[in-house]
Specification:
The protein has 300 residues and is mostly helical. It has 12 helices and 3 strands, in the order ααβββαααααααααα.
Amino acid sequence: MKNQLATLSKFNIFVWLFLFVVASCGTDNNKLSESETDSLRKTNSQETSGYDKKGHKSVFYTKYKLPLPVELYLALKDERVPYNKNILCTLGNADLAVTSVSKAINLGFYSSDLAYCTVFEQNKDAADYFEITKRLSEDLKINVGYSQETVDRFHRNINNSDSLYAISSENYWKTCDFLEETQHINVLPFIIVGSWVESMHLSIHAIEKAPNNEDSIRNRIALQKEPLANLIEYLYATLVDIKVFKINQDIQRIVKELLDLQSTYDQFGTNPEGVKITKAQFDSISEKVSKIRYEYMRMN
């Protein structure tokens, strides 16, 4: 894990799922060239970051400081929480998405799962989730990060976890950049919400295989209070620009459910000194996240 974090820090890879950081095209060369590293720095110029108490880089996307779920996955792996395939989205469920909104939310779900797989070096599973994110991106006509060259490079590096992480990460950034530049505000918010909800789901249910890490996992979930507030602020700002009534309704529905989730976080102020989150509060958050995830997967 330390080697992986060092590699990510060295190359300034602050991203999450599937962009196009050109690591090596071969399986025995993990280093970026100087020009590629410079290009990556430029790509990440719109990010802001800080450090948590363990020295992990906290990364945010856009001026609203939206968190990248990958930091939760890195923290889980750093604490030796086992990989759990059973809590990922079922591969076949992506085919149930029909509308652009449901496809965008599912793209967020599966992109987050892809990040989880690459962080935990589950390359075979990563390949499956990469194919799904590719297909959903094509359906949404935003497959800017999925040229044949990128797809071929992903499969050539199937045994190289660092390269898969890099390729997957840049694809995500390339997609988000494209959506912002072309003002696809009817797609990007749903991708971001889906990704965040899935990261919460995977982190909460990590306890199933790591009961000894229950306290640390709960505290990680407690720290999502501010990111949730930033996400809600971002959605409010998006509502101002939305011109399509149906999309406006969908975002309002999401905001309402996230506000209900935020109400549990607001209870932290009444906790005894030194208690970040109680078991009852954690259980409430877990129940609400599960409900939101279930509904979003079936949103039409």
